[in-house]
Structure formats: C-alpha cells, structure tokens
C-alpha cells in the first residue's frame, strides 16, 4: 500500500440540476455524519472538471460517486472497478455534466500521477431539471451508497467513525 498518497472519495455533480448533484449530496452526507482518518480525503468535486487534477494526483485510490447516463431504471446502482475502466467497459463521459473524469485521469497519467485504483459508485438519475433536491428515486440512495463506500473503506483497512449528531435545542 502506498503510504505517501491517500484514499480519495470524490463526489461530482451539479447541485442545481436535480439528480445530477447526487455525488455532491452523498459527499456532504459523509462529511456531516462521519469522521475519517488523515489518509482519507473527501472532495466535493462539483463540476470542477480539470481542476480536480491536484486532488486525483494526491490519491492512490479514488472512489467516485456520481450519476451515470445509462438506459436503466432511475435510481439503479451501478459499480465500476479499475478493471472495468481499463477494459473500456464504461463510457469516457460517465455523466452529463463533466468534461470527462476519465479524460482528466488520462491527463494525470501523462504526468505519471494518476490514481492506481479507481472505483465508481453510480446511480441512474430520474430528473435532471432545475432543482436543488434529489428525486424520490435517488434521495434514499444517498444512505445506501454511503454504506457501500464505508464497507469498501473497511475492505481497504480504513474505519470511519460515526459523528454524534446533537439535535437542535430550543432555549427560552
């Protein structure tokens, strides 16, 4: 295991285009509910495109959370491994918003700084209309994908710690 680089968890998407923001909503959920060791970096990638290069280059293993443009049931989950990426089993343009995360990774490879391992946890969007919330098909998937990411981290030898959420208290 590479000890100088980190494990990255990257959520990408546009939070004003409904389900397109799934990855960002999931990253925010992870940040709000869990603490991670120093070797794990969470990144709200938004629609940053090429500006994600520095984040990708500091990680040896990246877990990407995003939507995927497939002719499949809205809300359905799809997983892609590094082997799937290498075999060309996924599109170079995974979701409607991005320059192409895989294209950015190719640029990182030119600098000999690409992540050694990539994994994608993706869902098929139901609605890509102007909205800041997720559809009924995707909203419950946030916690489901969170569970899958936490399980994958455990398999990589990393444990997240649930934060104690203190409820709002009214005084007076």
What are the secondary-structure elements, in order, as H or E? EHEEHEEHHEHE
CATH homologous superfamily classification: HybD-like
Beta-strand portion reads 15-25%
**What is the C-alpha radius of gyration, as a whole number of Å?**
16 Å
Number of domains: 1
Q: State the helix count.
A: 5
CATH class: Alpha Beta
**CATH domain fold name:** Rossmann fold
Q: In order across it, which strands form the biggest sheet? A: 3-1-4-6-5
At CATH's second level, what is the architecture?
3-Layer(aba) Sandwich
Q: Report the span from N to C terminus.
A: 54 Å
Pairing-aware structural class of the strands and helices? alpha/beta
Q: Main beta sheet, described?
A: 5 strands, mixed
Shape: globular
Family: Belongs to the peptidase A31 family.
Keywords: Aspartyl protease, Hydrolase, Protease
Protein name: Membrane protein
InterPro entries: Pept_HybD-like_dom_sf, Peptidase_A31
Short description:
With 172 residues, the chain is α/β, with parallel strands linked by helices. The chain has a single domain (6-162), classed as Rossmann fold (3-Layer(aba) Sandwich), CATH 3.40.50.1450. The chain has helices at 22-33, 53-57, 82-86, 101-110, 141-155, and strands at residues 6-12, 34-35, 40-46, 59-67, 77-80, 117-123, 161-162.
